[in-house]
Write a structure and sequence with these properties.
Number of helices: 8
Strand order of the largest sheet: 1-2-4-3
Helix content: 40-55%
Distance between the termini: 44 Å
Radius of gyration: 17 Å
Order of helices and strands: HHHEHEHEHHHE
Largest sheet: 4 strands, mixed
Number of domains: 2
Strand content: 5-15%
Shape: globular
Length: about 200
Amino acid sequence: ERWAAGQDPVETRFREDTAAVSSLGAQVDRLVVWMDCVYRLSRAGSPLYTTLDSIFSVIHRDDIAGQLLPTMSLPPNELVRAVYAPLGVGHHVDHQIVRNWAVELHQQYPWVALNFYEEYPYREAENAIGTAQAFFETLKSPLHLSAELMPLDEADVAAKVAAIGFYTSQISSFWLNKTAMEAAVRTSLNRTGGGQPAERLWRVV
């Protein structure tokens, strides 16, 4: 009810993903179909993440997604030149799982460029980016990240706002409405670029 996602919230999220990705001219290709963490169950059928705090905590030891995704390889029939993964800002368990997968992929495919992006709006919290970066220093083989600013023009900003807008079920979690979302996104991008809109990537060097 909170997200107004209808009778099948999982399918609603899949549709939102497809609409957002398609609006950017990209293609959705799901290696596997794992639901968001709030819908995943243990082998015994119990919810793994039952509170808001648990969603932003450690990956549950019984989370199959957390166990299996980092073991998966890149599609053998595609030439992959770069991987873009969440930095882990905000410590959302789903973002951690994908980040961990990206780290494993880097071990398997060191010639593939690995880039981490700062998750919005979690990156707005104080020290959130630094906390996320600290993870990479704890790895057995620490990864060193270098920041790269990517300037955006108005078409880029509008495309980002439009893509976020397709996640109708998520708007109320962060903003009053889509108008407030657009204003907040533009403010954040301008802050990142020092007055001009920009995104910041963290590249493994």
